[in-house]
User: What shape does this take?
Amino acid sequence: MTVHDEPPPRIVAPSAPVLHGLLAEYDDAATLLAAARRVREAGLERWDTFTPFPVHGIDQAMGIRSTVLPWLVFAAGVTGCLVGLLLQYWTNAVDYAWIVSGKPFWSLPANVPIAFALAVLSSALTAFFGMLVLNNLPHPWHPIDLEKRFARSTIDRFFLLIEAADPRFDSVQTRAILDETGPVLVDVVHEDTASPFRTPRAVIHGLVVLLVAALVPFGLLAQARATKSRTPPIHLVRDMDAQPTVKAQQAFPRFADGRGARPAVGGTVAREDQLDEHLTRGTIRGAASRVFPPTVAADRANMGAGRRAFDTYCVPCHGYVGNGDGMVAQRAEALAQGIWVPPTNLNQDHLRRQPVGQLFLSVSDGIRTMPAYGPLVPIEDRWRIIMYVRALQRRSSATIADVPAAERKALE
Amino acid sequence: MTATPVSPYQGRPGGENVFARITENVARIAEAPRPPPAWYVAFGISVALLLIFISNLALVAWFGVGLWGTMHPVAWGFPIVNFVFWIGIGHAGTLISAILYLLRQDWRTAISRFAEAMTVFALVCAVVFPGIHVGRPWVSYWMLPYPNQMGMWPQFRSPLEWDLFAVGTYATVSVMFWYLGMVPDFATLRNRAAGPVRRVAYGIAAMGWRGSSRQWHRYERAYLLLAALATPLVLSVHSVVAFDFATSQLPGWHSTIFPPYFVAGAIFGGFAMVVTLVVPARQFFGLASLIQIRHLELMNKIILATGMLVGYAYAMEFFIAWYSGVTFEQFAFVNRAFGPYAWAYWTMILCNLAAPQVFWWKAARTNVWVSLAVGIIVNVGMWFERFVIICTSLSRDFLPSSWGYFVPTAYDYLTLAGSFGLFFTLFLLFCRYLPMVAMAEVKATQPSARVR
Assistant: This one.
């Protein structure tokens, strides 16, 4: 369409100017509109108007057919949406199935925002670049640029150009048509053969070389991905891959004192130094204690607290009276999976004879399949639980002699 | 030159017809040999703030995010407050350009270029914050779906991943929309250019636009399509940002009102920012005949309306907290208004609800300085809104043992101030070198342009 597409002619000597077309100038949009109708009626095809703003109605006056752009944009939108859905489906449900909050791998509503964004993105890119391509932009040089007056086409003047390449173009007749339409001026536009300003060949070659050079890093990346190497990877930012490490019992210059081993924080004492052996371990000089620590007195308050703690922590397995028939045990028996170790019946003779210190240790550290309750139950409460267990044991082996004399009559 | 230098922007623009006068009025700003002294002062301050911004980001990248006050339980802190603030500012631009274009509101032509530029610059500021907030900005690209040696893909059902796509799309579309609108104006500046540097620079930007009617036809169609695409996009982007909060289970965030509430707030804050920028620009650059009091009044009416919408959302949050009977929700809102952040909450209420009420009076709506003052106050209020939402909810975890109080550090404040430096540096460069008003669009709305 333009001279730019043709090989630039080599000018040796000034030659006769080649006619490009006729350019008419108008000072208002209404005259241009009427002129456009007139030119269209004359059956001309290769012509155009130039206006500082989109003149409404000129599309019909010139007979411009509606652009295909909206269909391109629609197709791009549908494609973008489908690509978005496929991308999410394949990456999150197939190739790397993400487990998110126990939801199914493919749950459409959560994938809508990204599919929508990609649909809009691809259609917007198509609208923008589609417009440029359809409009033959960028379009740096055009013969009418040589007309000084044409600079006002983007300011306040209206122009109409009929190209000499039009089959019906006739320099006399066509000019007569234009003269009838009331232009400010009609001018002859020549092909731009004299202007020295062309994209220099070196610039084009340079751009091609740059373009090829720009592919080299990608090639190197692809090569690195496809081949094996013995050299360690290059880390631009080393993150935590390379960090100073303290080796046990060795010097470490990063600390002010140069020692790798850190001294204890000021005021720290060894744990054992603070412990009351009887209270915390249930032993007296290494042997299991047969008496409660002096801080846990055998009174109604402690017994009540013991019962509450027992009902909270022990009952689920051992049952309310300690027979080993709690709800968890019953459920496990009912499942009959063959792997269940039943909880201990606390009312057995050998447990009745066990020192309280040993019972306390079993609760604190755990025993067989029972976990340690030391970390869970405060120390005094563990002693109170033992106190309540002793009461349960007494209850399960009670004789009439245990009932106070005053109550005995009622039972008999 | 006369002895007393007259600003090249003041005085009536010359020209034999209205189109020439519009061109002269806008183009003379970009063509003036040097901007007014006030521009240099503003640019100096902005660049200083920009340098502070860059150095703060560098410090945070080097030493880590521990420089900020962001700490458990308030793990989002200033960076996310600033992100939501800036992204909200960006919304008015697309609203003016796209939605008002589709609604055939011709008054938008005077301010659309400003608003679009503001959108693009606000988005530039916004995307910096999540980028640095991740702590290791050099691996931010991990958010993108690209085949990698770990064999992993992003989690596409996370609202934070939605954010990446929504904000990325929004930024791309906003830049294209802005640039597309400027192409004919670049052609005007190219045709008027005095020297070769300007002619080549504006010529490259104009891509050889000559205003052919066959080109205008496709151009207008592309513009309409972009507007139609940007309209659902502008509503979706801040909705997605709201999802970051609303899909969590935190009292005060877990709320279905968030997406529309955020969109209304974004338009509110964005329009306030447009007013804040337009008023000085029209005073300094002599654009009063293009950006008229009528336009300012219309914008102020929108600020009043969206301000009421935001106020409704504030009230509705409290109502739902009470009506739902959820203790945690009730605590969250009572704590918001009367807890340790009460000062921030009531600042927000004063700025966002009380200040715009002056616009019920026409005298206030049509006064440029009242508009400017309210615009600034609303921007402060909208920043506090995001602060209140993020900090009050995060600082009160479900367990009282996990409660905390967010104390920003100097780096937090300097980064916030610095982001304004980035914004205003870009904006001042825009005022200096680019067509500040959409000349071709304004011309098309003139009576003499409507022919049949």
About this structure: Strands of chain A lie at 19-26, 47-50, 158-163, 185-190, 283-284, 287-288. Chain A has two domains: 14-195, 272-411. The mean pLDDT of chain A is 87.
